[in-house]
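lol so apparently i was supposed to do this last week
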Amino acid sequence: MIQKPKGTYDITGDMGNKVRYVEHVFSALMDRYHYDYIATPLFENSSLFHRGVGDSTDIVRKETYDFTDRGGRAMTLRPEGTAGVVRSYIENKMYGDINLPKKLWYFGSMFRYERPQAGRFREFRQLGVEVFGSSDPMMDAEIISIPVNFLRLLGLKGVKVHINSLGDKESRDAYREALKAYFEPHLEELCSDCKERFHTNPLRILDCKVDHEKDIMKQAPKMEDYLNDVSKDHFNKVQEYLDALNIEYTVNPNLVRGLDYYTHTVFEVEASVEGFGSQNVLCGGGRYDRLVEMLDGPSTPAVGFAIGMERLITALEYENLSFGEEKQLDVYVIPVTSEDKEYAFGLGNALRLSGFTVEIDSLNRSMKSNFKQADRYHAHFVMIIGETERNDSILTLKNNHTKEEFKVTIDQLIDFLDEHLSSCDCDDCHE
Ligand code: HAM
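anyway here it is w/ histidyl-adenosine monophosphate bound
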């Protein structure tokens, strides 16, 4: 038997309802924030991620799914959504749009060759947002408010927001030099990854999972001491806007994020759900004012985030939160004999077009097993179609919850169902 690839999973059964629910709540929230939907290819030219995500990042060095297509082109399955959206922004000249800032959201699979464990997959899904054209710190706060409000709407409590500023290029360059000078005499004390980071991106040493408890890490220079006035002012204003929204946050000077493109604000949202484990960062993001230009577009400020859908669903499950209404079945249609099937099929189709949820028996079950099936589906009404019903155009409907039986003419059918389904006070409708 062929099995699924390591680190992937099938969305089946109840998981399907959960994914659709979470996406639906996010999409409705995005309408309220006035964002447009965007979808970009699952694979892109490899160079996009080398230049966009950064050659020095773990993602590009160790985790990408790279392949050569049949035309000999170097391709990569997207490890994250930002680089593709930036490519699309530039290629489609969205910077010329009169409706700026350009506010976009997406949902889809990302691929990283990581060591699979709880909350870490090789194919996972992100709900993400990218905004182009605004350097206003209010936009940084809007971006942080989206996952906070989203998690609130889903009912998740105990959410923690961590923020930091990496400053503009001048501040970041000054800090980089200070870190290099500081770590150089201690290189031998660092893990092998950090020794490499020292040369490629010394900021990443600060979020090393191996070395973080060491004293040399705790005493390392702090970014805040290297922020120039423009960067300090930006970060202060972001905090004032977050305060205006009553969003609680912690300034975490060691938060540098694993991607190279960030400037100014970076943030992560963590679920402090009991028993949830180490993969508790649900969401990460920040400002990336130089990336559009680095990918050959016009200089454009930008900010965004992405939420990991699997981690989010696990957090909601741990808290026993609901995933919306149970699926309802309005009418279960039973043709009595094979001669009744076409008529039953046509009537079921008409009801679906009128907005009802309908199932029609397609396994030619006996009447008894059809009623059992209707119970298993928690169908509101069972509609039996036999010769009499066809000839007289009078239909027999049974309320499967109260067991009441009704005779309804075909002309009255839709009004009858509308009225009875909206006023139904059975247990299933009021759970
Ligand atoms: P990221 O921090 O790499 O950021 O990923 C965002 C979220 O995706 C993480 O917080 C986590 O919930 C989820 N995630 C990441 N890797 C995995 C995995 N292997 N398995 C399951 N979930 C995972 C980005 O991807 C940036 N593009 C975010 C961004 C958008 N920054 C600006 N705009």
